[in-house]
Amino acid sequence: MKRLLIALVAAAFLFACNNEKKxxxxxxxxxxxxxxxxxxxxxxxxxxxxxxxxxxxxxxxxLDLYKMWEENKVDEMKTLLADSVSIDxxxxxxxxxxxxxxxxxxxxxxxxxxxxxxxxFDGWMPVHANDAKEDFVLxxxxxxxxxxxxxxDSVRGHAYFQIKNNRVRSWSEFQQKLTPPPPPPAKK
Length: 188
Hints:
This protein is of the alpha+beta class. The chain has helices at residues 2-36, 56-70, 100-111, and strands spanning 51-53, 81-88, 94-99, 114-129, 134-147, 152-164, 167-177. The protein has a seven-stranded mixed beta sheet with strand order 1-4-5-6-7-2-3. The protein starts with a helix and ends in an 11-residue tail after the last strand.
């Protein structure tokens, strides 16, 4: 009787293991079908809608660039820049296809007007445009600038950086002013 009970328990155990495996296989097939199913978007992307995660080292390059800006090490930024650099600023001004040296000189002139810069980051993400074979880094940040007279200005920003040959080739910035939080409600 004990042998029969042990045989039944062993058979039930094997049967349970086989069911789990089939469940896992069928779950994997369902996920596979979801990934390959085409989504009909209401618009067609002008540039690309075929992105994948990019190289994390590209994100580090961009964050290193920001750190150099924050620490007023503008001359060191040149090592992270391509030979030709373009920038689209949030106010609509552009710095188009100039040498890295001219961009460094431009940045130094502006940085001289600031006593300090403090940056915090909400997030970043390196991406690769599969069809265009190009790399970008997206960042979301908050920047707090203090000018030479002590006036503090703060913005929430988003930027995307184009990376070519592991160097920053261009970037576009989008910003909105951070407003102080409203005062707490009056206590009754």
